Amino acid sequence: MRRKMSLKTVGVILISDEILHGEKTDTFSKYLIKELTCLGFNVGKVSTISDRVEVICNEFHSLIRTFDVIVAVGETCGSIYKTLGKMTTQELETSEDLTRILTEIGESFSKTDILLPRQARILHTGHCHPVVHFQRIFILKEKCLKSSFTKILKNHLMEYRKERDFRKIIEINKNGNLSFDLNEFKTNNSLQIEFSKNDKSYIFNVSSPELREMVEFQRKIAEKFHNYAKFVDNSDVWGRVYSSGEKHIKNAIENIENCLQQFGLENIFVSFNGGKDCTVLLHLVLTVVRRKYPQHSHPIPCLYVQSESPFPEQDEFIDLCKCYYNLKIMTLKSGIKDALAHTLQQFPNYKACFMGTRRTDPFSGDLSVFQMTDANWPQILRVSPVLDWHYSDIWDYLLLYKVPYCKLYDLGFTSLGNTVNTERNPSLKCYDPFDGSEFYLPAYKLLKEGKERNGRHSS
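The structure assignment produced for this chain is given below.
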């Protein structure tokens, strides 16, 4: 059964030698249990451990496998940051953002308090101590626990806890004699339908936590009413993404806006193969289109370079996205270079292509966000808004904003090629302690970005 997008379970770690040895009373776990439970989380474990990197590392590894979210509280947080660096094989770097924030709020700090792994992110608002996080591990300073949780982390966790909620308004022009029986559209699944009408239109307000259900209903409407139906996505996710305070999201949106402003929406297309990176890219492009071009109704063109042995699940996901997001999928079975040449020959007006490339992809370490193809390639501007995103950023985005993704990622795949050259990532393989059976953790549990392509090999 497909895992729900909502995150539900939490492990709590108190990192304090004083509490562990009875020299100080634990006043924190009760508070966290109460607050997290009120948010709808199940607090499955509370651990009190010593402030030693190897001990913290072992506890993190144990909890990551079992729980969706980890909340770690430390008297000082330097050892926790050092632990994350060790677990992710990232060198620690002085965080200019954390230094600035702590200085602005008048918080004293040591050198170790501002040394973070490169992929760590900072949540901050108002005049309180920030929350450092990496891949749903949230780190709070003990003396500032309540203010940081209430003013910063609480709202963030509420977003993770939400269920998926796809929403559309479907307006059907009556066009004189057009009529139908409402009963034929009633369903027995989780699809919610509110119906109304006026002199000119029949109106459906439709919602569901499942993408497939929305698409099936949408196709049923389109089949019956053809050109009389208008579909409008009225989810609030687009506004939440657009107003994000996360620097990497803001930068991506700004680069997409700059491209569209320079070339126009009619002169760009998106490279989309159903993988996690281009799924985030597509969602960001759609966010900007909905904000900057609210009246745009034409399908967004997407180039899908299909391999000789595609995963059926990948093609199925692309087909669902085609309908739900109103995409024009141009599927070509060839090499990327030939596919690009064919596309530009057919559509010579195309000036730029949005791509989901990241620096960790092969031969991508020296790319720029805006870069022309090489001289011996068909000439087009490659625009890579998520170029400087990390693996953890991709999954935080997908999970926080409840973006649907290919179900292969829930089965232990972390990088999708085709059925010949791709297998589950061995770094995610686990064994059930009771019966010894083998299973794989979902892709978002992978901690080391360098192991993302461990399931890929040459074909």
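Interim note for the steering committee: Residues 260 and 268 are 8 Å apart (CA to CA). The first strand starts at residue 9 and ends at 15.
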